[in-house]
Amino acid sequence: KGLIDDYKKNPDKASVLISDLKAEAKSYDGKDEDMFGSDADGMITLKKDGKFLFYDKYVLQVNPVYLSLYTNYKDTDLYVDGKKVGTSTKQDFEKTYGPFVPGFHDLEAKFKNDYVSLNQKSNNVLLDGSETKQSEDLSLDGEELYVDLPVEDGASKVELYINDKDTGVDLLDGDAFGPIVTDGSITYSVKADLPFGTITTDPAPIDSSEVSVDFMTADLKQSIMDTVVKTADEWVQAYTSGDMSKITTGNENYIQFVKDHVESNKESDYAFKGEYLSTVFDLDSFDLFESDGVWEVNVDVNEKYKSADYYIDEEPSLEENDNYQTYTLVYDEDKKTWLVDSTYTNYGFYSDDDNTKEVKVEKPKMYTSAWAKSDK
């Protein structure tokens, strides 16, 4: 049909073909058939094919064309003239099919999954027979979802879920998934196997081709807050007693930091008296990230004390103080816990103050530097 359609649309080609075939037929009389070329468009030639009874037998030989079909998504069905010829087995798939008779043919690619249905048609594609293989592009016009992860090599697996269904995609193998729609009608979430546990994020609508994943779940945030509150209570005990064994929530770096301050205070006859009242957390400030395989969390807080810093030959004057700090915690894989690594002074919250949470001490306890208690 495709061949006949070509000649119907191009009657001049048909006339040339008939003329060439007649010339070839006449040329067979006593001459070598290999001396004669094909018709003008190279699609059909006359070939002698033995005898039938007393008569010479001839055939019209149609030179076949092979189709190299390309499509961009895995699991795409490929069709030629309505007949399925294959299915793509990977992204950026290309394979040769055939043979096909020269002429006009209809090509189509179809893709369908739980989230999107796509197709690409190329009707009346002419296989002109001038070459034995012809390439055609059946790329589908789908959108790609690019997922930005806060991880380089600090996770063993990050599974992508669409509408709460496992896609079977590990995002560590690549950050793109598709095809998909990005109109907000479907949701995504990830399940990540991390050193500090398996994290499953809350479903979020896909309203853009690029999304960012935050592994700071509500449970992890609460765990960090508990550690910071406990650290503040342990700090005031260690800071006034000089006993670093009071600190169970800090790593060696943090313990050395506190110890250095205590030694400096002793040498300067400087003391501290006070009670830890509460910690106000800036809930927008939690920042979880991984660098060179080490996981860290930063969070801004305001620690409130009723306290005084003073020289030991003076009387302390207690008053309520705000202590704005940024905590940095690291995950210790050996101890399987988050530990405070450092703190530094910041200058207040930069986010909406309404998005805060205050954790108060039920029964604050007053502590005084041990080296300031002797009579003078």
Account of the protein in words:
This protein is 17% helix and 46% strand. Helix 1 crosses helix 2 (11-27) and helix 3 (218-241) runs parallel beside helix 4. The termini are far apart. The chain has four helices and 24 strands. Strands 18, 19, 20, 21, 22, 23 and 24 form a seven-stranded antiparallel sheet that branches. The protein is of the alpha+beta class and 376 residues long. The radius of gyration is 39 Å and the shape is rod-shaped. Mean pLDDT is 90; it is low at 35-40.
Radius of gyration: 39 Å
Order of helices and strands: HHEEEEEEEEEEEEEEEEEHHEEEEEEE
* Largest beta-sheet characterization: 7 strands, antiparallel
- Unreliable spans: 35-40
**Number of helical stretches of at least 4 residues:** 4
Question: For the terminal residues, how far apart are their CA atoms?
Answer: 113 Å
Mean pLDDT: 90
**Strand coverage percent:** over 45%
Structural class: alpha+beta
List the topology elements:
Layout: H1 2-9, H2 11-27, E1 44-52, E2 55-62, E3 65-71, E4 77-80, E5 83-87, E6 93-100, E7 103-112, E8 117-127, E9 133-137, E10 143-148, E11 157-162, E12 165-170, E13 176-180, E14 187-194, E15 197-200, E16 204-205, E17 210-212, H3 218-241, H4 252-267, E18 270-282, E19 287-291, E20 294-311, E21 319-332, E22 337-345, E23 356-360, E24 367-368
Parallel strand pairs: 3-9, 10-17
Antiparallel strand pairs: 1-2, 3-6, 4-5, 4-7, 7-8, 10-13, 11-12, 11-14, 14-15, 14-16, 18-20, 18-23, 18-24, 19-20, 20-21, 21-22
Helix pairs in contact: 1-2, 3-4
